[in-house]
Design brief:
Growth Hormone, Chain: A, 0% strand, disordered C terminus
């Protein structure tokens, strides 16, 4: 709804980028307290509080009448996202065998591309056409998180009793462990990798419709082409973690996608309608592969009882979504061209290759299957 929101709210590209990325900003802000809360009261309760806030925020966005109120309600939605999402890796660590961490991470993250693909493909041609207002669009899409909140509190199980006992026993040492985690260089590498991953992903998925508009593609078709990213991510979430688990290696699933994404950013400087489909599909496979691998390495590096806090630290990397969309918005406001933004994506992809190579190999083929958080 970029064009609709800019015209009706009288905002710039940069201001629109804040509306788009505000939920991920709140993930970065609330991830650490959300992770600590999970370690204290349990993952189901912490995430359950978050999913209620998501539902409330999405409903309130349907009542927004100006940019400021829409931003405020989006912050509520984002706070819920920040409280809920970091808890899912913790639940994975409780319920999943070590050797299946990658596959399970891919399964629970499947909702991300499915949701994105549906929204991109249906919002303008179907939902907006039916409702006629951006508020109506927000009301329609608020139905899903309301259902999700009900399902979560009804069906999701608490971790096994033995895991809960370990969690309670660890509460007294949370501050000490937080200090140890902060000193862990591998966690900082994962944080920066996630930051660069979100910078790339949200820049492309947020601004590709505008990029395609520059070469004359109509908004409805531009949305459909952009939706290829999450559609392609669906098989990537299912298949790439399985391949990663089967090979018993993690690092190649970080540095190889980074090289591919660098080439995509360079090619996008001369994007055309025929090539756009292939470029979006490539992004849809490479970015989720890297994302799932980051989460898998996180689970494999950390003791189970501290994965909530560690996830909170690493998920500060969602701030990259803010940086990517905002910087691109400012570039568009100043130059009306995308080349500088795409060059930035090329550079950060090369940096991601270097960072990935510095991580320890945590797959089962590695000499050491576990790296202590203070190593």
């Amino acid at each position: 709804m970029e064009q609709v929101l800019r015209e009706q709210l009288l905002i710039t590209h940069a201001q629109l980028s804040l509306l788009f990325s505000a939920p991920l900003l709140m993930v970065a802000v609330t991830a650490i307290p959300g992770g600590i809360l999970a370690d204290k009261i349990g993952s189901k309760k912490a995430a359950g509080i978050g999913v209620i806030l998501i539902a409330v925020g999405t409903v309130l966005r349907g009542t927004a009448t100006d940019a400021l109120s829409l931003l405020a309600f989006t912050f509520i939605y984002g706070t819920g996202f920040g409280l809920s999402y970091p808890n899912i890796p913790k639940l994975v660590s409780f319920w999943t065998p070590y050797e299946k961490a990658g596959t399970t991470s891919g399964l629970f993250n499947l909702g991300l591309p499915v949701g994105s693909a549906l929204v991109l493909a249906l919002t303008m041609p179907v939902v907006f056409t039916f409702t006629g207002t951006y508020q109506g669009v927000f009301f329609v899409w608020s139905i899903l998180p309301i259902v999700a909140a009900i399902v979560w509190w009804t069906l999701v199980r608490e971790p096994p009793p033995s895991a809960v006992r370990s969690q309670i026993a660890s509460n007294s040492s949370n501050l000490n462990m937080l200090g140890r985690l902060i000193r862990n260089k591998n966690l900082w590498i994962l944080l920066v990798l996630l930051l660069l991953n979100e910078f790339y992903m949200n820049t492309m998925i947020g601004w590709t419709p505008a990029l395609l508009g520059e070469i004359g593609v109509q908004p409805h078709l531009a949305g459909i082409i952009t939706s290829v990213i999450p559609w392609a991510a669906i098989p990537a979430f299912l298949l790439m973690p399985r391949l990663c688990d089967r090979l018993g290696l993690r690092k190649p699933f970080l540095w190889i996608p980074s090289i591919i994404l660098a080439l995509v950013a360079w090619a996008a400087m001369n994007i055309s309608l025929p090539t756009s489909w292939l470029l979006m599909a490539t992004i849809g496979v490479a970015v989720p592969t890297r994302f799932i691998t980051i989460l898998t390495v996180l689970v494999e590096l950390m003791p189970t009882e501290y994965i909530g806090t560690a996830s909170g630290l690493v998920f500060v990397g969602y701030a990259g979504a803010i940086a990517g969309t905002f910087i691109t918005g400012r570039i568009l406001d100043a130059t009306r061209a995308f080349d500088s933004a795409l060059l930035i994506l090329f550079i950060i992809s090369i940096v991601s290759v270097a960072l990935a190579l510095k991580l320890p190999e945590t797959g089962y083929r590695a000499k050491s299957l576990k790296v202590k958080p203070d190593d």
